[in-house]
Structure formats: structure tokens, C-alpha cells
Fold each of these.
Amino acid sequence: MNKIFIIISREFSTRVRKKTFLVVTIFVPILFALFYAFLMWMLLRDDTQKRTIAVINESTLETPFQKINNTTFQYLDQNVPESDYAEFLKKNDYYAITRIPANVMTYAEIPVFSTSQVPMELKNELAAQLRQNIESVKRAEVIAKSQVPDLEEELEATKTPVLVRTLLVTDKGDTKEGSSEITSIIGLVAGMIIYFFVFMYASQVMKGVIEEKTNRIIEVLVSSVKPFQFLLGKIIGVAAVGLVQFLIWIVLGGIIMIAFQALFMPNLDLEALKNASDLTMFAQNSKINTEQLEVIQNLAKTIDPMFIMKFLAAFLFYFIGGYLLYASLFAAIGAAVDNETDSQQFMTPLSIILVVALYIGVAAMRSPESPMVFWSSLIPFTSPVVMLVRIPFGVPAWEIITSMALLVASFLFFTWLSGKIYRVGILMYGKKVTWKELYKWLRYKA
Amino acid sequence: MSFFKALNIVKTYANHKALDDVSINIPEGSIYGLLGPNGAGKTSLIRIINQITAPDSGEIFFRNEHLKPTDVNRIGYLPEERGLYKKMKVGEQAVYLARLKGISKSEAITRLKMWFEKFGIEAWWDKKVEELSKGMAQKVQFITTVLHEPELLIFDEPFSGFDPINVELLKKEILGLRKKGTTIIFSTHNMGSVEEICSHIALINKSQKIIEGPINQIREKYASNTYQLSCRYNPEFDPETIVGTEFEIVSQRVEDERQDIILQQNTYCSANTLLSRVLPQADIISYQKIIPSMNDIFIKLVKEQLS
């Protein structure tokens, strides 16, 4: 037993001390966070620049544009030839010049000439205002022509605000508010993380096994510990690396979330927001608009602490279970071949199963109740990915228990099976191994 | 009491019998040569002794007790195909391997420092194995094999990959370990080193043990009762006058004023009797029984089994 710990600690410490581990675990998430922080900062930054845009109005519209934030409009009396625009802008200190053509009521394409790039936001605002103005003029004309009394009010009354709230009903009769978009995204992200973790760490086990075999250190090692013990130590050691990486990510994620909140929504009371029905007050207090607030509100409603705990527990279980299942099989493959290129023929079937699991996971996001999704969330080779996608939608307890029990049973069985192949394979050199050969190895005496 | 015994070991792989009812008995304090051509089953037997694989049938006793899993800590093994983690530092790796043999970390470090000093390789401690030459890595490997002071050491072709100077160093260390009481199994097909350092041998060929015993007894047994008489060359001396009824001449030759006569003894004749016949006629340099080399015995026995 003691020897297994020595093996675990070597497998763990040699990997954790590698530069790549440090980079992937700490720098990459920080880099991502900084990138998003920068993007958000760019988006939320107040447009404080004062601008004046000159307008040559050839249309019948009276005022195509009104004031937008810090941008004002100056309507010109006389025409300016296009070739003089640059000089004209400079002389009058205008930010831009635009010409509203006479046919704007039927075909509204307007040029905006500026000496610098016009911000996207301003451009969108210009389009929105112009459209609104054209539409209201046209509507007034229609109303005047139709001579229906109070048409304007009635038309106004047709505008109906619509909000779809999704609610979960539990067996106990409680209802819980939740957003299906957010739950499905959480599930899919978790499923993808499982997929990558299992693949990444199981391949690390295989690489380690191949390294020991080609190095020829394995014969020395198995003269000190039983091959199965050694394999177990290796698998657990690599799993520990994965768990530590995951924990660091959770902690880093928490810190980054708190930092984001402090940066972009300093005065936001999440508890109050959760129960609020009118978001405009919140929007005034923070720098975020109501649409973004709605997303945050949904998130806050969906992710209650109980759900997070349960989901994390399920995640850990399926990560460890799925990893153990695949890692032992990958280890057997590593032991059977002499180098990584030869491993392809045995890797391919497993890779296909994993990729299929990921695709079913994506499908589960759209139709979590389909039979294919149901069965693949029970079958051990696909369940780690698919079940995690399903869980946020609510899965009956017996299904989760069955799926977990099957996973445990199958990794015990396959670890035992792989152990037998491993034991023989690590001492076999220069043989092109076939499936038939592997079957023979299973029957050798330890 | 026997030190290490393997009885009636049988090991079969798929369709090939690697060991067919092989028994060996290793006396304590011996250097036990395990000889045999490639593919004879030496490595299979060694792996069974190391409990890397289990025999299909047969029993193994270590100091009269059945071999148990914890016995791996009492055995040191240097495989023929050996290697180390290339990316791991020498010192760290040696400590790891020692700990797997049941030695505490601090004890491993103390002993390693001593060995590194002895071999003059202290500077390698923090080097990665990939920075070492093959010979250097072999030295480190040797140290890790003996560090836990096992009662039984198993060397499989230990000298392959070493230059002559390091071979000498290694031989000295192996003999030193024997002096301290370690029993050593020495698997090889290099007969020169066998005669030099082994006290006992077993010859394995085609999955079967052909012969086993103290090396001197075996050589004695295969001696064909021939003798070599060397004298200073004297043209007057006729060897035919000394053979009597007991001997016949196999061959003779003259070289550098020296005459060598090979005699086959057919009936017993003491050395004194023969020498008294020569004494008046020639100036005797030496007279000795011809003992076959292990190499000769090896080839003879392997060929015998073949036919």
C-alpha cells in the first residue's frame, strides 16, 4: 500500500512541476479573463466624446436625426461638393458629414463621411433613429389616409410585451424558476470539460506507460511493485493532477467572477436582483443595460447553492469514473504497443466512442428526453459526458444512481481486464500486436 | 538449510514452453552463473524469481520459506534491458527507486551520497538522465540495484554496454558484495567472466536445465583425463620412451625451445611415476591435467542436446 503512495506522489509531482501544467492551469484562465475584461470594458465604456455631424438634408424629413448622447447635428443650408468634404470638416471642426437623399423614404441608404472610423454604436444609433423617423412619418400618412378614428391609439395598443418564464416543477409540488438556455449551456460546458479532461488525462497515462516501456525502466519497476499496483498508482497520480487543475480553475474562476462583479457592477445586489421584477432601477444603479441584467438575473435564479453543490458532486463523480474507465483502457493500449504511432489502431475505437458521446451531449441539449440520450446517459462509455448535459434539466434519481452504478461496475471490470493486458504487454517488445494477441494475453497466468 | 531453491518450475506462453520442469538450488554466498544460449529461458526464470510473472507450476523457497510478495525488497535486479526515466533528475530518480524497494527517503539519500562519492559521480545528482552517457547511466542503474542491500542480487548480462574499465570496476564491486555475504545470480553467455567470478553454475538450454553445481566440480567432471607435459626442447628426448602402458600421445609440438606433449591417460599412473621417467631425459617445465574451459563445456553440452 505504502508503495502505491510513493508511485502516486512521483506521478503527481513530476507532472505538476512541468511548465506546461503551470501555463495551462494558471496563465491560460487568467489570460482569458483579462481578454474578456478588456472586451467588456471596451463595450461598456461611456462614449464621452463630443461630436457634431453636419447633415445635408435633401429629403422631406424635417429632422432625420436628433441628439444622440454626446453627438449633435448641424443641418446645412447649402450643398457642399463631395470633393470638398475633407476640407469642409476640418474647417468647421465637424466630426462627420452625411447626406440624406431625396428618395430616403423608399430606399434609405445614407453615406457618412468622416476623417476617422465611425464607432459601431454610433452607426447603429444613426440607423435606428432614421428608421424610426421614416416609419413614424409613413405611419402618420397611413393613419391620415385611412380616416379610422383613434387608429393611432389602437395601433399603439397592438404592441404587446412578451416574456417567457420557464419553471421547473419538482415531485414535491414546488416550482422553481430557471432558465433553460442557461441550464443547457452549463450542462454542455460541463460535458465538454469532462470530454477534454478524460481524453487529456487518459492519454497522459498512455504516454507514461509507453515512455516506461520504451525506456525499459518498467522491468526494474515491476521487480519492486506488482504491475497492477504500479498501474493503479499511475492512474491515481494522474487523476490527482487533473483534480488539482480543476480545483485551481474553480478557485480562479471564483476570484475572476468576484473581480468582474466589482469591476462592472459594483452596486449590484444579487439577492435583490433575483426577486426583482422591474430591472430598470437596477440598470440605473449599475453600468449594465436591462438586457444584460436579465441574463444575470436568470443566472442568479438558476444557480442556487444547492444546485451548484449537487452539480459539482456529479461532475466530480463522472470525471473520476469516466477517467478511470478510459485511463485503464488507454494504459492497456500503451502497454500493448512499442511506440505512440502504433497506438492508433487501438485508440481509434475509443476516440470514436468519446466523440460520439460529445455529439450526443450536444443533441441532449436540444432534446434531453430522447431515447438515444437516455440510453447513452446510462451506458458507461458515454454516460460521463451525456449525463452531465442532462442533469441541469432534471433527471430522476434512479437514472442517476443506475448510471453511476454501471460506471463503477464497468471501470472495475475494465481496470481488471486492462491490468491483465498491461502486465503482459509491458514486457513484450518488437511484436506487432493484434486484437487476437491481446485476447491471448488475457489468459496468461500472472 | 538452503538459501534459495526453485523446484520444478514450468512456464508456458501461448504455444511455447519457456521453462520445462527446471529446478535450481542456489547456495548462500555463491556467485551463481545462470548460463544458456539466447532464448533458453534464463530471463523467464529470472522474472519468476523476481515475481514479475508467476510460474504455471512449481515452488520457490527463499531461506526455506515460500517466496512471498514482500520478498521483492530482499532481492535486487538489474535486467538486461534496462533504463531510467530520461527527464528525471539522477538523484531524485535513485531515491524513488530505492523507496520502491522499501527504504526510507532519508536512508536512501545517505546511502546514495556514499555510493556517489565512491564512484566519484557526486556532480551528477541534479543532472537529468538524458544528459548522461550510456555508461554513466549504467553506473547509476547499478547503484540503484544494490542500494537496498538485498540478500539476493540478480544481474542479467551486467557487463553489456560497459567499457573495459567500468567492467573491471563493476567486477570489483560484485566481488566486494559477495564478500559482504550477498548471494548473486549472474546470468550471461559471456563464458570468460563466468570462469572469473562464478562459484556455481547452472546451464539452461531449450527450456531445460542441463547441468548444475560448483564450477570446479563441473569442469573436473568434463575433464577427459588428458595431461600436458612441457619440457625445454631437447632433440635427444623421444616422448615415446615415457608413455609406458598407461599413456598414449595425443599430440605434440615444439615452439620457442619448448616442447608441449599432450598425453591421454588410459590407466591410472601417478604424476610422480611419469615424471620419474622424464627426469633423466629432459628439463621439465610443467605437468598438469587439462581442465576444459566453461566455453568448451557449454558448447559441448548444447551440441549434445541438439543431437
Note: Chain A has 17 helices and six strands.
Amino acid sequence: MNNRHKPNSPVSLLAVLLAVALLTGCAGTQTIDGEVNPDPYEENNRSFYKFNDALDRHIMTPVAKKYVKVTPEPVRDGIANFFDNLEYLNVILHSFLQGKLGQGINDLTRFVVNSTLGLGGLMDVATDMGLEEHDEDLGQTLAVWGVKPGAYLYIPFLGPYTARNSPDVASSYFTNPFTYIATLYLLPVSVLNMVNDRANLLEASEFVNEASIDPYSFTREAYLQQRRYLIHDGNPPSEGYDDIFDLGLEEEPKLVIE
Amino acid sequence: MNMILLRRPFYALLPLLLSGAVQLSIPAYAGETDVAGKTDTAGETAGTEATDRAGAMGDPGMTVAVFHKKLLGVMQRAGELGYQGRYRELEPYISNCFDIALITDIILGRYRNRLDEVQKTEFNNLFSRFSAATYASRFDGYGGEEFLETSREATRRGRMLIRTELRRPGDDAVSLDYLLHEKQGKWYIISVSADGVNDLSLKRAEYAAVIKEKGYNGLLNEILFKIEQMETGN
């Protein structure tokens, strides 16, 4: 790997991400006709969406399809479990940072069990033992701490984010043990992770193409709603279900962003 | 670059879509409680009767349960029915049990007021077709799934939220939340959320973007194109 491809230093990377988050957070408070517009960069976001989509269609999907043909499903599942387990340290950190002590202990136990009895994470034995899997990240922690979501961002290679969630790129990076191993091994292992993830989502992506008539809007809306769902740990307040029926017909479509 | 490779890629939100968010993003309708294996040859009548029965019981949970049972029946006979058979069985439930007019009002938002009555009726019919086609296309097999109601809650505005789960052997359960309202003594499903993703919000955002870019006729063409794709399996 040449120098151009070396990762940025952790400090400068974090600084850039935080700066982006703050700037776009301000942009997310811009209003249109008195309504908060959570997608003030829609034009740029759409361009990046097209870029990622082209990358996916022409490179990732063909590679993933070939990968599926030569890799049995149990192997793909084992690889997915392995990487999920490594990434779980980020979940543990943010369970504790959100003050969920019991959940954090569960998550820590889950990581230890899968890393040992689960053969380094290849098998998810913790779930069978009743240790529930959770989904936490820095964006959810900031939401719990009262930080506003800011603007919706669609980032090249990475996909959808809110400004508030974008620093999680750094959090995920620093909490992943693979960050600290030699680059020589990191690249092929990371590529395997990406291809394996993509292969396991082939059916899902076909479904999106089939069901949506404007994939950009579809992705944005689904992402923002999913974030809200995760922030509320899968139990969002019931009054939110009524909101869309109480808009006047003259109102612009309103994005739920929380 | 390494950081990028370690980060879960941009399609990381797709599992939620696979789990049913889009399958159930279609306004579906409660139908009759036919027994799996029995072909519903009088679908529309049966659907109407079933809705009447569910509504007469005054129980919104019944509307959801009847719909789930119908879906399971179609899934269990998916191969035997084929796409056209699944469509024929589901279409009456789509068009008779949901409050399609309310749903399309919400989805089209302010654009709705620009349509005359004939156009509104045409759009409602097209939307019913699109919904039935999507269900027929996606519910094409059975792997031991079951639906269970987990809780219910009246909302502050007099609607009813029925929380259910789609349980799948060897896979995570999907939460399916149905919002229903009462109209003329009957309970109708007016919105479905799968793992927190709401069907109306998705479609409202999508359709507004398409109308803005291609106009109302462009939206109709896009929906017709999707239906054709599903019918031909392409």
C-alpha cells in the first residue's frame, strides 16, 4: 500500500469528523417556510448516492455474487459473526456511556463468551445462552445526551448519516481491534469483511430496487426512521405514529428526524 | 481507506429492509380467515365479509389477525398459486380492508388537491394494484413464520396501535406495528411500521421527490413500471 492510502492520523481524523458534524449540525437547523429542513445538502447528497450506487452495481455486487457461489452460507455466517464480535466493543462502550449499566454488563459478557466459547467470535453462542445482542453507537449516545441530529449526510463509500452520528466513524475505528494490527493484514481482512457483508445483503438490495421508485428518498427516510427507532431502543413513543395523519394536506412532506 | 473498509458499508441499513420493512410498506387489507390450502375463489366477497366481521366485533386486533392469517395462507401455498394466484387472493384484501383513500391522501400530501375526482379514484385503484403486486411478489414462500400480537395501545387521537411480531425460525423477529382507525363502526389498518420504519413516511417522501422531478404523470408511469416488473419477474 502506498502512502496515499495510509489512514489519516487518528487525531486529525477525529478533528475533521467533529468539525463536519458541528458545521452540518448548524446547517440542519436551517428552515424552509418555518420547518426544519434536515436535508439541506440534498443536491450533493444525491450526487454521492449515485456514486455509491454505481460503485455497488459495477464492483461490489458482481464480486459478492461470485463470492456467494464459492462460499457456503455457514462460512459466510461465521465470518459475519467474527467481524460483528470485533465491532461489538463499540456497542459495549456506548451502552455504558448511555448509563445502561445492566445492558453494558450483558454486552461485555456477550463479547467475552463469543470470543472464547464462540471460537474467537466465529459462532454466536452468547445468543443461545440468552445474552441479547444490542445496537448502540456514538450517535445514539449523543442523542441520549441531548445533542440535536443536525443535517442528513450521504457520504461517499460510507452511506447515510446524520451529522450527530458521523463521529461514530471514529468511535467504531478506535474500538475495533483490527485498527491496531499491521496494515499488511488489515487490507485483505477488511475487504473480506466488506464482500461478506455485501454478499449477505444481496437479496435485500434487490428488494430495495424492486420496491422503491426513488431510492435516494427511500434510503434517507428509512435511515432516519431507523435511527429514531434505535435511539428509543426499539420502543418509540406511540404518539409519533399519529403525527403524519395530523399534517395539513398543503404541508410539505415532513421528515421525522430525532 | 482502512477506516472506510472497517466501517460497515453504506448498505448497512438493508437488513431492516430485508426484514420486511418494504414488504409491509404496502397498505394491506384484512381479509377472511381461510384455511391454508383452500383456494379463495370468491376473494372480493370473502374479503368484504371478513372485514365486516372484524369490524362488527369492534376489535382492531381482529383486523390485524385476519390479515396475518390470510398472508400466512398465501405464503404456505405460494408455489401452488404462483404470482398471479397470490395476486388474485390478496388483491381483494388490499382494496377492501384498507382505507385506501386516507392512505393516498397522506402519501400524496398537497399534490392530492390538484387532482380531480376521477384522477383520485384512478390513483387509488393504481395504488391498490401496486400494493397487491408487491405482496404477491414478496410473499412467495413459507419458512415456518408466524405472527403474534404483543401489545396494543390507544393513541391520544383515538386511533389504535397494535404491536405484533413476525417470528422466523433461526432468525431475528421483526416488529410490525399497525395503526388502525375506526370509520363507520369498522377498524381499518392505515399504517404499518416494520422495525420502526413507517410505510406512509417512506412513500410520502418518495412520491414527493418523483412528482417534483417528473410530474404527476411521471409518478404514475413509475408505479406502472414497477407493477410490470413484478408481474414479469424482472
Note: Chain A touches chain B through 70 residues (CB under 8 Å).
